[in-house]
Amino acid sequence: MWADLLRLSVRSTPFALTVLGIVGGIGIYGLLHLQVDAVPDITNNQVQVYAYAPGYSAAEVELLVTRPLEAALATLPGRIEWRSISRTGLSLITIVFPDQTNIHEVRAQIVERLLSASDKLPPGIQPELGPLATGLSEAYQYVLRPRVPVSLTELRAIQDWIVRRALLETPGVADISSFGGYVRRWEIFIQPEALQRYHLTLSEVENALQTQHQLQGAGYIERSSQVLPLRTEGIWRTPQELLQSTVAQRHGYPVRLGDIGHVAEGHLPRYGALIQDTLGEVVGGIVLVRRGENTAQVIARLKERIQTLEPRLPYGIRIEPFLDREALIHRVIHTVRDNLLKAALIVIGVLTILLGSWRAGLVVSAVIPLSMLFALGLMSLTGISANLMSLGAIDFGLLVDGTVILVEAVLVRLPHMPNRIQATEEAAITIRQAALFGEMVVIAVYVPFLLLAGVEGRMFRPMVLTMVFALIGALILSVTFVPWVSARFLDTGESSFASTLQRGMGKLATWLFQGGIVRPWLPLFLWLTVLTGGLALFLTMDSVFLPELDEGAFAVETRLPAGTPLSRTIEYCHKIHQLLLREMKEAFSGAVAKIGTSEIPMDPMFVESADLILNRHSGSSYSRAAAAESLKALVERHYPGIFIGVQQPIQMRFNELMAGSRTDIVVRLLGPDLDSLYGWGERIASFIEGIDGVDDLARPLFLGTSQMVIRWKPEALRFYGVDLSEAQRWILAYRAGLPLRPFYSGEGWRFAVALRLASPPALPSQLLLPTQSGQWVRLEQIADVVYVPSYNEIPHAEGERAYAIGINVRRKGVLSVVEAIQRKIAELPLPPGYRVSLGGQWENYRAARERLLWVIPLMVLLIGGLMYATLHRFSAIFSIMLVSLSAPAGGVILLWMRDMPFSISAAVGLISVFGLATLNGTVLLNRYYALSTLSEASMRHALQERARPILATMLVAVAGLLPMAFSTQAGAEVQQPLATTVIGGLITGALFNLWLLPLLYAVPVRRFVSLRYGGTQQMGANQA
């Protein structure tokens, strides 16, 4: 089959060009439809459910809202994890499902269960689903910048009813969460004296306003062959209409709302604010890109929409982004494109030199863009985005292995066979088995990584698939286009430099071989040294889950003491902005503080907490680590007592969505009693705080300030004749306001309306309440107003209450810090029913390590099977794999020499390079087993023959990875560990394949003795 295909490719121009056209067509389709992003989206498959419960404490939210919702959602099929947060006025539940789960079907099931649970919730509480978004969805964040002074209330109304509405129409946008400013509310202030004068109650006023402010259909009337709908219209259009509303009849005269109160513009209670630079408060929004969309295209469409919207905005408002992930995407893609271009040029140059023909270099170089086009087409068809990982680890040297073998075979035959078509045909058929073996081994190295799951699967599976797609494309081209173009383009010329280089490779192999015969202990000793050194470094070096991508911005979590009001947090954030932009103006170009919670509580925070988004100068003299340390030290020096945690926006969002915390490690104490959780949790935190490497230790805001609680006295209520329901309404109107039907402006904007008391006393205990006899009584006479400690939040994890401690790691590896934490916790005598679990990066690292333990044996079995099909000897397979262990050891050593921590990225490189090293060993031993006699001369000659392809393969693969290993551009830190381990492993693997493997082949001793003293020995099939 292969022979017929190759003959057809060599001789049929239409066939070869048709295949080339198909490959190119697939590639062009990919270029037009490919998704583009900065990094793979590693967010797990999750759904968030939230419910606002104004006026309820955290304990009441847990009891009345979170617990019923958890019970309704507990039996969802396929649920693998869930956690929740119960805070004052808010319940947030996060449910995680396996990656293969259809998220749309799950969301439909959740909606059904929420509808069935609605009757178990307090009146007025409506749970909602979070947007169909992921950790990378917050792709565009902006502020509204007017040219003339505009109130924050007016800006927020424009954001909600003009900007948000217009931008939601952008294809690919999941939702837009408004942030900052004041949400307008019309407030009706009632005079208590007027109520007493007209003998009215708040309940009567509330009911009158509720019944009057509504639209109602009244059927239809048939008239003159027409049907005329009949309806009543009683909605308010202006505050004046509201004041004219009749609330009661007294002595035959109407009592209007204007007789007992007045209407003024107010705002809803605030739970967040937005500050930009040193200008103070602003209004903005967070654009959420829908899951599965092309982020770059969505942002581009969004910017087009903004350009058409801005001329229509009042007050000359402009929409200015303060976090635009398109800039990060462009920087990262530029890095990938630059590295790939450099790698391609280096590989082409090296190959041209090694092959000794510029024509051969062009033939091989043509495979690189064509195979990449083919990979891009399949990426688009399978939904894989082009990002730092999917494209950043492509090694062109591995892609062209099969092509190089074919072209080299043709070049060898051309001097003796003037007919290029015949020479190409013979060469292609002769070396097809060897070339196919090499291509299959390279594919077998990567295929087992497709079994990776979890975070590491979402991170590396796109890279593996892209590499496999490119290898398949190169394989197709090597049996179709390459034979055709070789038969028509190659010639017999070879440079003298290439000949000299090839002779040098042969001499190097001969020198190693002869030295090994004289001193066999030397290569064995060095192999053992490399192996033990690599193992020792592997066991002792710092470990992280994944290298951190430099996003070009910091996300600084700032937390003031519990109970700090929003106004105080705004003041402090403003001062911190001024401090940073004054003292570190070389490092930062702008600052935005997001305080508290936005409209959509995907990232709920307290009003005493803020995220400072700091954009870094690209040309700053500060490194990322130095800027982070200086920033933290500066703020803590000027404002002691403020918690500061420094991360990056995407990194922090991933941590929060994946583990429920913004930090690298999460230590959770699980148990039933809140007081015990708090006590033991604080004890654990104090132990952890002293561990080397622990930084930014964040205790949860478990206990907050005291709450003011009104406890009614039943006897006093009866004695004074106070109606409890009426008294409850007066308390609600005292601060929050009694909610009424919304108000509609002439533009169609909808605003809340609330009933409030005019001139309320400063303290609720002094509030006067009406009695049934028409008299007034102070609240303190019929109720106890007490201060009680309260919980700010009550988190749940794995179905239990939890005390979560967040930790960021500096100067050490995550693994070593986790091990130290586990030793400390093991010393604690926790009471029965309480246990500690660790999450965050550590959990991801542990899960990835367990899955890699399955990947490694599978890869060894696949490669071993391919080796046995070629060598048919188990002893040879064992020898090759034993020598190839030097490859991952060399990768670890080079990683250590470059002062890089071990990571999952490096682990993938180590496993890959082990498989690649076995390929070179198989090429060498396969030549040895083809010898008819075994002697020093025959082995030396065979080694010289195989030294060129082994060293050439190593040099080309190393050359293809050099730009990634030593790049300093944006995103390079993610590629460097993988490229570094592969480079180090290829070098040591090739060295010991040429040096040690021939000596292992000469075992048993009688063979080695025969070689040592110049004898010969016949080779037989039984001498494996």
Give a brief rundown of this model.
With 1024 residues, the chain is an alpha+beta fold. 53% of the residues lie in helices and 20% in strands. It has 36 helices and 33 strands.
Characterize the structure shown:
Helices cover 53% and strands 20% of the residues. The strands form nine sheets. Strands 1, 2, 3, 4, 21, 22, 29, 30 and 31 form a nine-stranded antiparallel sheet that branches. Strands 14-13-18-19-17-20 form a six-stranded antiparallel sheet. Helix 16 (420-446) runs antiparallel to helix 18 (481-489). The longest helix has 31 residues, at 325-355. The protein is built from 36 helices and 33 strands.
Main sheet attributes: strand count, strand direction, barrel closure: 9 strands, antiparallel
The span between the termini is: 31 Å
Low-pLDDT regions: 1016-1024
| Overall pLDDT | 82
Multimeric status of the protein: single chain
Q: Measured on Cα atoms, how large is the radius of gyration?
A: 36 Å
